[in-house]
UniProtKB/TrEMBL annotation, chain A:
Organism: Saccharothrix coeruleofusca
Assigned GO CC terms: plasma membrane
Protein name: Daunorubicin resistance protein DrrA family ABC transporter ATP-binding protein
Keywords: Antibiotic resistance, ATP-binding, Cell membrane, Membrane, Nucleotide-binding, Translocase, Transport
UniProt xrefs under PANTHER family: ABC TRANSPORTER ATP-BINDING PROTEIN, DOXORUBICIN RESISTANCE ATP-BINDING PROTEIN DRRA
UniProtKB/TrEMBL annotation, chain B:
Major location (coarse): membrane
InterPro entries (UniProt xref): ABC2_TM, ABC2_TM_bact-type, ABC_2_transport, T7SS_ABC-Transporter
Keyword Transmembrane helix: yes
GO biological process: response to antibiotic
Superkingdom, taxonomy of origin: Bacteria
Subcellular location: Cell membrane
Name of protein: Transport permease protein
GO-annotated cellular components: ATP-binding cassette (ABC) transporter complex
Organism whose genome encodes this protein: Saccharothrix coeruleofusca
Membrane topology: Multi-pass membrane protein
Residues in ABC transmembrane type-2 domain copies: 45-276
Key words of the record: Antibiotic resistance, Cell membrane, Membrane, Transmembrane, Transmembrane helix, Transport
A UniProt-annotated Pfam family: ABC2_membrane
Amino acid sequence: MNDFMIEATDVGKAFGAQKALDGVSVAVPRGTVLGLLGHNGAGKTTLVNVLTTMLPPDSGSARVAGFDVVGQAHQVRSRIGLTGQFAAVDEQLSGLDNLVLIARLLGAGPREARARAAELLELFGLRDAAKRPSRTYSGGMRRRLDLAASLVGHPEVIFLDEPTTGLDPASRLGLWEIVQGLVTDGTTVLLTTQYLDEADRLADSITVLAAGRVVASGTSAELKAQVGQRTVTVTMATAADATTALGALERAGMHPVHDAAHHALTAPVTSSRELAVVVRALDEVGLEAAELALGEPTLDDVYLTLAQHAA
Amino acid sequence: MTTAFTTAPTAIPAAPRTRWRGTGFGTQVLVLTQRSLRALVSDPRMIVFSVLQPLVMLTLFSQIFSSIANTPGFPQGVAYIDFLMPAILVNTAMQAALQAGVGLVTDMKNGVLARFRSLPIRLGSVLVARSLSDLVRTAAQLLLMLLFAVLVFGFAPAGGIAGTAAALALALAVGWGLGWIFLAIASWLRNAELMQTVGFLAMFPLMFASSAYVPVSGLPGWLQAVAEVNPLTYAVDAARALALAHPVTGVVGALGTTTVLAAVGWVLAVRGFRRPLSP
């Protein structure tokens, strides 16, 4: 057995005519974090569902912790933890009872279950709320309880589907620390996110999905290099100007990303000489940029460039 | 919500010192049944409210239709309340069966079901647990109704406590069997409003086109024909015979039908329930 804890090979999944996954392959070594980036609808959650045995793939195969997600679903389930986009907790039950329930279903005796639950409630700062029904929890507390629930069985592989969506900054930082702690202890993590800083901070490697396909993968640094050294951002005075400028820049051979809300266009450039190309292109259509900026690449640029172009 | 996590990440005991190896079907059912009952115990108002509707029916019918006891065709020497109550028990158990389906749909909306799917358990245990906890809830409901009928309306059937207990058990069994049909419908439909509508459309005519409220001989001809083939007539007749200490005929048939319903419902429910939650 090689030491990939998650290994998907050419996974395809369609919902009717809609191809949610179109030949996706990922490989995650033990004790590392894979960040899965992509827009809504890019296929992130579908991939997580396939890898966690929730959905059978139409084609291709996947192994998690060395077991096939279709033929050995039971073995996979006893080794994974899943935190989905919606808190998977029982709102009728208290935080304590939720965790005890999971532990009991995993095979713990009543005392073991209570001990594990208490441990996790402490860890996630929920001890004071342990006996309250979880429906009275705030959104952030509920997500923490959800994450705690996915850790009850000491999983070898953890899937976090947009775990920090809706969390306040402090809780977000706390969750990052928890994930880093888990990885230090040898847990393997697959994390989907729309937050680039989250992927940048946590992920050892990043895979960008768009329209069900892998459009890029590598470390954060590799992806940044792949996208180019710099970007130029042109901000126009009005939305109409921005649209005109978009056409002009495209005719000049550039591939700008249009941020309609700010009348801004961002395009990767290889050298600062291309600034002149931008100015000339705008000049030809009789426009002047309200603001012209040269930026060093961030993961956001990677994301925008790769995901948006492929979609 | 600004409370941060309290402990440094290095404190996480993530190393799998003792990996739990899953547990048997029996334990799964037990743990999950306790879970559903806990919600019931934590909010007993649910039981009280769920008996309100049958209590209203009991009150109305026992008053409005009491003169039926004087009509020809009505069993001699039987008070209307004694005639009515077994039917109310069966009816309430039927409603509870529908509620089992609605409860399952509600559960599917509850995020915890998504979590159960990611656990190494048999999903059938979730259904069995649902069915068992509903059985307990229905039993509590029926006992409450009986108590009310005895204290307020002077329900005192010839069959005495034993006969009444037998009628109660039969109503529970029939409701439990039908509950599996509704669990099956629920696991395919997955829509609470639709469930309620389907349930109402199915139950309401069945209840009235039967021997529940008047003897079948007192119904118009065409309705008599419907009532004769209505399975509910047999359940009601059997429960009534038990309570009134009449010669009992339909019990085996009612229990047999129930077993078939439960078996068919089980197969369909498990198949439907296994389908993924998301499309």
